[in-house]
Structures are given as C-alpha cells and as structure tokens.
Amino acid sequence: MIVESALQAESAVRRDIVPAGDYYMKVVKKGQTVRLLDLEGNQAADTLFYNANDPVERYSAIDTIREQGNVYLTAGTKILSDQGNEMLEIVADTCGRHDTLGGACATESNTVRYALDKKCMHACRDSWLLAVTENEKFGMSKRDITHNINFFMNVPITQEGGLTFEDGISGSGKYVELTAKMDVIVLVSNCPQLNNPCNAYNPTPIEVLVWDAAA
C-alpha cells in the first residue's frame, strides 16, 4: 500500500548515508520516526530490530506475519517482537511491499546458491557481525543475529510455495518510514549482493533519517 509521508528531510534530527556493504546501528527512541531511503533505486536494506533496553527481545518474523496475515510488509504493518510486543509501525511507504522471508546473504549461502568462488564475497551477515563487534555498548554477539526484514527487496512466492529473487520493485527516492513504539536498536546491512538481481547487480547507498515525535 502506497502512503506518502508529510515529514520533511530538513527537519530530521539525524541523517546518515550508508554506503553499499556498510552497516547502520543506532538507537531510535520511542515516538521517533525513522526513514530508510533508497537513493538510487533497487537497493536492498537487510534490517534487524531489538529492544534497546533489553536486546534479548527482538523482531519476530513469525509473530509479525501471523498477526497481520500477510508475508509482505507495507504501510500499516505492526512490527512485533518475539515477546508479542509492538516494536514499530510502518507509517509511510512509497515502495509498496517489503520481504520478510528471504533472509540475509552470507558467505555460506553465496556458496550454496551460486558457486564456490563466491564464498569470500562480502555479505550482510558479515556486516551485522562487524556491527555488534564494533558496538560493544549494546552487549550483543553473533548469537543475537536472527531473521531479518529485507526492505525494498522483491522475493515473490511461487505457486509451489518456493521463493524467488527478482529484480527490485523500488526506485530512486522510494522510502519506508517506521515509528518506534519502544526504544529500538536499528541494525541495517546495506546489501552488497552482486549475485542476484535484488539490487540490479549494482549495490548503491541508502540514507537513514530520524525525526523526533514533535515533527
């Protein structure tokens, strides 16, 4: 569902450019709104959410899908934790839908899906592992890496119930906005994938903007 935002970029309290293959890991406070902006189009932003006050509580694909009755995420979707609590709500979306089944690329999956010589290519799980290692203040480790949301990524479900990775449906300037219902750690890997068409074989930067509730 396409819903545009009334928020203006110049009123954001924080703006960060995340290069392809890099990560973003910061706290978004309850009531704040965070926007993931696809700057050049067809990029994929592999994203994890955690309760900033207790990172043991984190985004649950199972609970989110069950409660909304839809495997795709879009405006109006409530992002639920593994404890059934509402973490965020998607309040604006100009892309239309986002994947929560396809998972994140890893060196191991690059090998299985593509070829042995793809194993050493950079992957989203590597970005997350680097993020938790470089941000010890959150007290997290590789054990906290779990199932993610792929914002902007196009992973259609086949009639047989399988998943396919297709050319993205996003475009330059498309965005998704979420309002935090609790203090959340937002951990994004801006996908560097070169082996499937999720980002048109051309990884590009994204921008992350944050607004206070008063905005």
Structure description:
It comes from Vibrio palustris. Pfam families: DUF1989. Residues 17-185 form the DUF1989 domain. This protein has helices at residues 61-68, 107-113, 124-134, and strands at 14-18, 23-28, 33-38, 45-51, 72-73, 78-80, 86-93, 98-99, 149-151, 174-180, 184-190, 206-211. β6 and β7 (86-93) form a beta hairpin. It starts with 13 loop residues before the first strand and ends with a strand. It has one domain. With 215 residues, the chain is α+β, with helices and mostly antiparallel strands.
Please describe the topology of this protein.
Blueprint: E1 14-18, E2 23-28, E3 33-38, E4 45-51, H1 61-68, E5 72-73, E6 78-80, E7 86-93, E8 98-99, H2 107-113, H3 124-134, E9 149-151, E10 174-180, E11 184-190, E12 206-211
Antiparallel strand pairs: 1-12, 2-11, 3-10, 3-12, 4-9, 4-11, 5-8, 6-7, 7-10
